[in-house]
Amino acid sequence: MTKDWIRQRKRDPYYRKARAEGYGSRAAYKLKEMNSRLHIITTGSRVLDIGASPGGWSKVALETVGPGGVVVAVDLVPMDALDGVKFIPGDIEDPLVLEKVLNICREFDAVISDAAPKLSGNRTLDRGRTLALSWAVLTIASRVLRKRGSVLVKMFQGSEVEELIDEFGPQYSSIDRMKPRSSLQRSIEIFIAFRGKKDDRQIDPGAV
């Protein structure tokens, strides 16, 4: 991290707001904005947050679902405990990790992911790695979501977005693309919401 980057972050109103309001990161406001428009998470929802650390999205999800909802967070990176969020360390593609998730909740109303790979600086490589992450999230979501459930994933702008939509779009009733106001202007990130899952297939953890 350069001194210039640190200075820019400290001037960032969303960064300052996140610190003041106790969110794990400025990314919390991205989810707040998108959910206010798309209503992916509602009161009583059961939410699976993949790649959850440092916890900003999990906290927003918890506040939104209320006491009747469930938030399960999964990440390889440790996350500070959030009262009411069930955190499972590990890789969601590991059958043992997925089994732990399903022992908490057998099906979900929403799967959300702000996960991104460690950036290399090579845009083609970084877009490919992001595609692989989102592909994994949607593969899991296609098995654990209830009928009419929704998925929200992060991508980098490029042809990979269309590749993801071509593969998974037919499983859902609608697809929305968004870049929240709280995204950095220079960022090439975009969020894809797949809403209204068309079937209610359930997963056999041992088959993953």
Salient structural properties:
alpha/beta, 208 residues, single chain, globular, disordered C terminus, disordered N terminus, 39% helix, Rossmann fold, 7-stranded mixed sheet
Describe how the helices and strands are arranged:
Blueprint lengths: L2 H9 L1 H9 L6 H11 L7 E5 L5 H10 L4 E6 L9 E5 L5 H10 L3 E6 L9 H22 E12 L2 H10 L3 E7 L10 E9 L11
Parallel strand pairs: 1-2, 1-4, 2-3, 4-5
Antiparallel strand pairs: 5-7, 6-7
Can you walk me through this structure?
This protein has 208 residues and is α/β, with parallel strands linked by helices. The chain has one domain (26-207): Rossmann fold, CATH 3.40.50. Helix content is 39%, strand content 24%. It has seven helices and seven strands, in the order αααβαββαβαβαββ. Strands 3-2-1-4-5-7-6 form a seven-stranded mixed beta sheet, with helices on both faces. Strand 4, helix 6 (123-144) and strand 5 form a beta-alpha-beta unit. Helix 3 (28-38) runs parallel beside helix 4 (56-65). The relative contact order is 0.14. Mean pLDDT is 86; it is low at 1-9 and 203-208.
- What is the helix fraction of residues, given as a range? 25-40%
Number of continuous helical runs: 7
- Summed up, the domain count is 1
What is the spatial order of strands in the main beta sheet? 3-2-1-4-5-7-6
User: What fold name goes in the CATH topology slot?
Assistant: Rossmann fold
Distance between the ends: 38 Å
CATH superfamily: Vaccinia Virus protein VP39
The assigned CATH architecture is 3-Layer(aba) Sandwich
Can you identify the CATH class?
Alpha Beta
Order of helices and strands: HHHEHEEHEHEHEE
Morphology: globular
Uncertain runs: 1-9, 203-208
Largest sheet: 7 strands, mixed
Number of beta-strand segments = 7
Mean pLDDT: 86
Radius of gyration: 16 Å
Strand content: 15-25%
What is the SS-derived class? alpha/beta
